[in-house]
Amino acid sequence: MEQPGVFSTFGDRATEARYNETARTLRTPFVRLYSVLFMSVMLAYSVVNPLYLDPVENARLAFWLGVALMTTGIYIGATFWRDYVRHPMVDFAALLAISLIVARINFVLFDHLLHIHDDLHAVGVVNRLAITAFAAVTLAGRPRLFLAWLGCDLIGWLGQVLPGQAADAALAYALLSYLSGALVMAAINLAVGRTSRAAFMLADSLDAERARNEELVLNMLPPTAVERIRTGQMVADSYADASVIFIDMVGFSKLAKRVSPGHLVELLNSFFNHADACAREHGVEKVKTVGDAYLAIAGGNVPSGNSADAAIAFARAVLCGVDELRRVAGVDEVGLRAGIHSGPVVGGVIGATRMAYDYWGDTVNIAARLEGTAAANGIAISESTWLRATDRSSFGPPNMIALKGVGETCVFQTAVVDATGEGKAAA
User: Fold this and answer.
1) What's the pTM value of the predicted model, to 2 decimals?
2) 99-to-175, 191, 307 alpha-carbon distances in Å
3) Which residues of 387-420 are buried (b: 16+ CB within 10 A; e: fewer)?
4) Which residue, among 141, 131, 50, has the nearest Cα to 98 in the 3D structure?
């Protein structure tokens, strides 16, 4: 995002609208404060005037002071309108009205000073420059609108001055005084606008970077774990009924010797991206990748209903991508196999660097062992998963297989999962 020119805006309309709403929201409390200060000044004049003005002049002044107070009160009320920040013309109209009302108040005060022949060389009226400064800050970020406000204010001021002005010198000096103050306030308006846009760009960049970091963190850790880590809590959870899925690439070691590293990374990337998409579709949580193996869990941090059904559906969907993997690899020997076991697991985050939410327990170990017993492009599940599953038609009869570190285990297998996701029962 580039800093726009002096009179230009952000190229993207949405960004420009967001900037204006953000800047006006931040300035709203100060607008109210300035308005209250102005009302205090008007009240001070209301208290002082009866001490020095005759009843007729005091009545005229009291009327215009009352109008100023009422207008400013309405302006303050408008700042509480829900859509106030989207309508800068509220400030434009309110401040222009206040400026013209102050001009009328000053005429009454000037008349009084002339009548008493006061030779005081000081400002004896309400300083209208304060109103111009108010508008310069309130309309910051919109220099064209502020210049239009200055033009309207000048026309309104001249409309009040010219009818009763006979001396050219007095008018010339008055114009010089007005224009010099207006130029200074225009410069202030530009300066505040430029700095506020620069601050917005910096804050926007920081927010975007924070959002990217948040996304990266949430890709590695579940949202609930992130919240607990932020509050300094230890992240440790127990799940009584989860289904762990291990999916491995068949023939990967041989393939690694034949293809280039870049080709190998492309193949793995295709496999993992496909598995990620299947995990999102079936409500399965990706845990991690280890080499060419993909570890996922149903029934952990991500609710999945029947964890066994979700795990089996996920494994079938991943194995349906074998044809695409073969196309990427350029060979027909590439395949996948999956192992699933259901049972209790423990999950949590360990360490303070390179943190990841991991799962441990016999259920994870057995799922890894079962994956090695599956046929190429087939699925092997334990008896506990088979008992939990509602659709067992694609699995063959039980086989007793000795698993390393586990012992004799009852295993149900499919043969090959085809492109439709169906598996032939193993003999």
Assistant:
1) 0.57
2) 16, 22, 71
3) ebbeeeebbbeeeebebeeeeebebbbbbbbeee
4) 131
Alpha helices in 221-260 (DSSP H): 223-230, 252-258
Do residues 323 and 419 make contact, with C-beta atoms less than 8 angstroms apart? Answer: yes
Spatial separation of the C-alpha atoms in residues 354 and 220, rounded to whole Å:
9
Are 282 and 314 in contact by the 8 Å Cβ rule? The answer is yes
User: Which residue type sits at 125?
Assistant: V
- Is 322 within 8 Å of 377 (Cβ atoms)? yes
DSSP state of 350: -
How many residues are there in the chain? 427
pLDDT tens, per residue, the chain with 427 residues? 555 665 667 878 888 888 889 999 999 999 999 999 999 988 988 888 777 777 877 888 889 999 999 999 999 999 999 999 999 999 999 999 999 998 888 877 777 666 665 554 444 556 778 889 999 999 998 899 999 999 998 888 888 777 766 657 767 877 887 888 889 899 999 998 888 888 888 888 888 888 888 777 777 777 778 888 877 788 888 998 899 999 998 888 888 888 888 888 888 999 999 999 999 999 999 999 988 899 999 998 887 789 999 999 999 999 998 888 888 877 777 889 999 999 999 998 877 777 788 899 999 999 999 999 999 899 999 999 999 999 888 898 999 999 888 899 999 998 665 555 555 554 4
C-alpha radius of gyration, the chain, whole number = 38
Q: CB neighbours of 297 closer than 8 A, spacing ≥ 6?
A: 242, 243, 244, 245, 284, 285, 287, 311, 345, 359
* 353, two tokens: 């660097």
- Give the distance from CA 330 to its chain's centroid: 43
Are 318 and 260 contacting, i.e. CB atoms less than 8 angstroms apart? no
Dihedral in degrees, nearest 10, Cα atoms 215, 219, 222, 227: -30
Element (H, E) at 238: strand 236-250
DSSP for 72-119 reads HHHHHHHTTSTTGGG-THHHHHHHHHHHHHHHHHHHHHHHHHHHTT--
- Of 396, 356, 390, 350, the C-alpha closest to 373 is 396
- 371: helix, strand or coil: helix
Dist CA 69 CA 426 (whole Å): 89
Q: Residue 212 gets which letter from DSSP?
A: H
Could you write out the DSSP letters of every residue in 25-79? HHHHHHHHHHHHHHHHHHHHHHHHHHHHS-HHHHHHHHHHHHHHHHHHHHHHHHT
